[in-house]
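Input record, target 12 of the design panel.
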């Protein structure tokens, strides 16, 4: 670019190192071979479009910033020089912004992304999904030069890098500065294997695929020809539904969300009435990066009369943060500040209406297309469930949308299905919270329910321990944990096989002379303050013992999560004993025979066994092993 007379004096050139993550990322971009290189152009165009959006927003209060230079993006291939140039007349960057923005990655999850990328054979969709941004250009270029002038500024600066450890910043030469009256011009020195991006049909193909719906004109300047616009630059949300093909929606979704996947659900309408606004929203088909970031913020973009205002208006509640898209208002003031949005009653009204529409659309998808809805639930169910305890108003709807793994095989089940299949006399919906489906299935607390054919929801998402902490009902049936408080299944008849076994059991049940109540008291005395109570169990048929939480206070699983976090002593569990189990009966016999050691060892063992079945480790594993061994040795040694 620079000529002999035009070079910048070396003392004005400053060298800056990249942030470590950027250096790592660039190393991958420069050296690995990825198949998804096309997206570099999408990323640069998207940045250019953002820069135009920002300037248009700033110009609301200061129209001079735009003046008579229109907002546009221009792509210029130069086959002789082997360069591809992308220029925008947007907001531009000053020296410090060049250093900050093109030297660091601010996005959360970057570290995790880099190590995933380093391990992946090909980018395999990762690069597009994470959005490597500007740095994606190093997949196709071995040297990049960025000349930028902040809108309204007298000076322009040049950022240059070959993708190594750092970059250089210098004031622009007179020629460079004249070339960029406002905004940013990025020159890519293309690698040998990326020269195809100099062909105009390649550029047009990529723009059509990814950037068709960018709102600013994208112009292609080929050799000496006049620049010509190659995108439609129309707002897809303003078009009528009947005009849009599925392909149009897919492109609009990918353009707006910067995504690679297909939309799993599309919601497109115009609200008229107290307020007018156009809505185009999508549910992605796979989890976007950052979905589980602690800020739980959504990304729906707010436009006012085609002008982008912000993507931080939180137009949907946190449990719908996976939804992407645009709301374009006709009524809000253009100069509404981002801060004012929080308390604006019109925005609050849009928020409420939008939430209702999205939940309604999810319901109708669930009704009409089980398979598509099932996939959406797989990707976002854990997020949607947060709404059960956060959105009181839509609690019933969200419970209805939830899908569960249950003790009934054959795919996820809804509560509607559960209630339709209730056993006779069953009046509650039962669930068990724990760490994995397989482990839950072998949990003794299921035994009595299983013996009666009662379906139990198996909840294994971390969020399940939280939403179930609220008292809940569905269709007039209470949701009830099997590891909390009393359960009474006695009104629900046993399945046939189990009924016979119970009968047989009752017949042989005559060998202990100690009352159930006494056995319970014996165990309670022996366990002291390790338990808050000991009870005869209604839940168990095969196992000897289990631990449950009291009727008040948190469920066992939540208790466990909380005590893990605060490390404090939580409330003590209740030990339930299966009075028909030989080990429990042996406890009574040991007491009768005044074998006090056996009484205390057996009681502790029953307690610790129940802990293990819940996936816990006894507080003192060595003492547990000793006790177990003592009992075994005594049992194996013939009585003298
Ligand atoms: P992202 O766009 O996701 O923030 P990038 O790495 O692509 O990540 O860009 C980093 C930042 O650099 C942008 O957020 C923006 O502030 C700035 N930037 C990039 N390209 C431009 C441009 N053409 N005009 C003005 N600012 C830009």
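The sequence produced for target 12 reads:
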């Amino acid at each position: 670019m620079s000529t002999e007379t035009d070079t910048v004096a070396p003392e004005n050139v400053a060298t800056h190192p990249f942030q470590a993550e950027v250096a790592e990322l660039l190393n991958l971009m420069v050296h690995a071979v990825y198949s998804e290189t096309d997206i570099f152009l999408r990323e640069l165009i998207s940045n250019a479009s953002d820069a135009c959006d920002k300037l248009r927003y700033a110009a609301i209060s200061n129209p001079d910033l735009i003046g008579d230079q229109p907002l546009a993006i221009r792509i210029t291939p130069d086959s002789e020089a082997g360069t591809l140039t992308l220029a925008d007349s947007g907001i531009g960057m000053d020296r410090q912004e060049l250093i900050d923005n093109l030297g660091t990655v601010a996005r959360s999850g970057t570290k995790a992304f880099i190590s995933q990328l380093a391990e992946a054979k090909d980018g395999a969709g990762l690069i597009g999904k994470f959005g490597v941004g500007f740095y994606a250009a190093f997949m196709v270029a071995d040297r990049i030069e960025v000349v930028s002038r902040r809108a309204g500024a007298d000076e322009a600066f040049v950022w240059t890098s070959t993708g190594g450890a750092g970059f250089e910043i210098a004031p622009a030469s007179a020629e460079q500065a004249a070339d960029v009256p406002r905004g940013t011009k990025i020159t890519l020195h293309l690698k040998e294997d990326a020269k195809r991006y100099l062909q105009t049909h390649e550029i047009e193909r990529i723009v059509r695929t990814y950037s068709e719906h960018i709102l600013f004109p994208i112009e292609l300047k080929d050799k000496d020809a006049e620049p010509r616009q190659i995108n439609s630059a129309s707002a897809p949300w303003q078009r009528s539904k009947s005009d849009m093909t599925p392909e149009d929606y897919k492109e609009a979704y990918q353009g707006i969300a910067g995504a690679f996947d297909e939309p799993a659900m599309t919601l497109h309408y115009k609200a008229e009435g107290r307020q007018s606004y156009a809505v185009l929203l999508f549910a992605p088909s796979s989890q976007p990066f950052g979905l589980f970031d602690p800020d739980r913020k959504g990304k729906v973009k707010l436009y006012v009369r085609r002008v982008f205002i912000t993507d931080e208006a939180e137009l949907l509640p946190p449990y719908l943060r996976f939804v992407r898209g645009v709301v374009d208002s006709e009524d809000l003031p253009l100069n509404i500040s981002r801060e004012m949005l929080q308390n604006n009653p019109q925005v609050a009204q849009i928020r409420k209406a939008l939430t209702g529409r999205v939940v309604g659309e999810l319901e109708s998808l669930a009704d009409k297309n089980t398979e598509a809805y099932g996939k959406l639930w797989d990707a976002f169910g854990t997020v949607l469930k947060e709404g059960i305890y956060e959105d009181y108003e839509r609690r019933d709807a969200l419970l209805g949308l939830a899908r569960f793994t249950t003790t009934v095989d054959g795919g996820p089940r809804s509560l509607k299905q559960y209630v339709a299949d209730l056993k006779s006399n069953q009046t509650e919906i039962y669930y068990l919270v724990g760490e994995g489906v397989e482990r839950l299935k072998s949990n003794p607390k299921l035994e009595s329910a299983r013996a009666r054919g009662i379906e139990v929801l198996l909840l294994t998402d971390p969020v399940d321990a939280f939403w179930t902490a609220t008292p809940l009902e569905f269709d007039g049936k209470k949701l009830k944990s099997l590891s909390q408080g009393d359960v009474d299944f006695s009104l629900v008849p046993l399945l046939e096989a189990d009924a016979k076994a119970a009968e047989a059991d009752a017949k042989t049940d005559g060998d202990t002379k100690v009352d159930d109540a006494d056995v319970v008291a014996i165990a309670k005395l022996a366990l002291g303050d390790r338990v808050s109570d000991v009870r005869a169990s209604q839940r168990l048929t095969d196992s000897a013992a289990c631990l449950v939480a009291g009727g008040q206070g948190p469920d066992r699983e939540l208790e466990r999560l909380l005590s893990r976090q605060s490390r404090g002593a939580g409330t003590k569990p209740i030990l339930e004993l299966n009075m028909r189990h030989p080990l429990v009966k042996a406890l009574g016999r040991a007491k009768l025979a005044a074998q006090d050691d056996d009484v205390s060892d057996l009681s502790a063992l029953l307690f610790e066994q129940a802990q293990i079945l819940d996936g816990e480790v006894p507080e003192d594993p060595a003492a547990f092993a000793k006790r177990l061994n003592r009992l075994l040795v005594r049992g194996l040694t013939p009585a003298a």
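The mean pLDDT is 89.
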